[in-house]
Amino acid sequence: MGAPKYQKIKQDLMEEIKDASVNTPIASERELAGRYNASRMTVRNAINELVEEGVLYRDKNKGTFVADQRLMKKNTSAETLNKPMDDTYDYNVIYFSSCFCDEKIAACLEIESEDWMIRIVRLNRKNGKPVSVEEIYLIQSLINDNDYNNLNKLLDLKGYIDEGSVTQKFLPIIVPVKYINLLHVKLNTPIIMVESTIVSKSGSPVVYIREFNNPTEKIIEITT
Amino acid sequence: MGAPKYQKIKQDLMEEIKDASVNTPIASERELAGRYNASRMTVRNAINELVEEGVLYRDKNKGTFVADQRLMKKNTSAETLNKPMDDTYDYNVIYFSSCFCDEKIAACLEIESEDWMIRIVRLNRKNGKPVSVEEIYLIQSLINDNDYNNLNKLLDLKGYIDEGSVTQKFLPIIVPVKYINLLHVKLNTPIIMVESTIVSKSGSPVVYIREFNNPTEKIIEITT
DNA sequence: AAGTGGTCTAGACCACACT
DNA sequence: GTGTGGTCTAGACCACTTA
Fold first, then answer.
1. Greater confidence, A8 or A148?
2. Nucleic strand D within 7 A of Cβ A11
């Protein structure tokens, strides 16, 4: 069968409110149930997800309203993990290799240092300006051969997140000299390095990312 | 009436799993429904909240399991906004005043610079070690007179969050000289300043916080 | 009084895992 | 075949707000 009914309702609602201004009420749950020939619980399921995502908010005894889109939930900072890139974003892969883990990376991925990993370094740009350098570490044994030859597939890590969770550490450092030219920042500039670990539902690490952020081009912002 | 039935179920489940190890299955939804003489939808409501909070995870066709507590969702970095402090935490209020807004703060709180605000500066400690300095800005007109004289109440901002959302910006800076001694860090240390704005459901700012974090005593970490 | 979201019931069918 | 979570129905009562 096709997608569940509540997903269809959710999509329709998102389409309906995409140009609506903040605090506009949406139709009541009972009315939507009638319109979609669905039960109220099904409509609530659709609305619940949109509330959870910060697209709508409820006000008891009053109704359900369009939330401030500026306050849309943003839970991660990493370019790699964000929504589909729009055309103001692009990137260059600077380095790609398959090699043994060094100890630090092995510890983060909970593998042995004699295990193979894939290391990708890329420079992310927005409007042509360098926003961050990402060092992405994957466990080689988890990658099948088809994906190995498809860089875009390798770098599309969003799929992993739906099935797991992300932990990010924010570390203040002085920009590493090797990235000064790439990021186009001055010597001794304080920057934030974000260490992200994606773990599967069962708790085993899948991907480890170090992201060196250019503070003049990117402000890390999170909304909950 | 008392609390809703699903909240009671949620509390019981939390109690039950608090010492359980990771990946332990909980009772099935149908069994819990029987045990609590509730419908399955009511049990699902309870479980949904725990899944949303990262306490449990579901595996389709298999069951519902205890999640890795290390991966419990942590959505904010600020001391002020975190769970009830345990006894390893304490703080000193260093500064408390009621004054006109300067322009920068007024802009963040979306009020006029001739409006009054309350400014609180405090030093947070864990195990006696300084973890952060927080500058907390409240809109005076939103505070009633009773609360004004109750510093603990003023600093208990968690209530606001349930009704609104938090946006945090992470800014890399060199530690301000005035906080070097308080934080016990060296001159020119790179640190992260977290700017938090709490806004109500309707989108108007309520509290603005600047937090200067000691990188040697506190690693900012977020799990989603 | 009418309408809203919050909670709740007692069923149902499905696809999928395991045995 | 049995059990699981995922989805869905067609009602219901409550507390509350608004007119």
1. A8
2. no
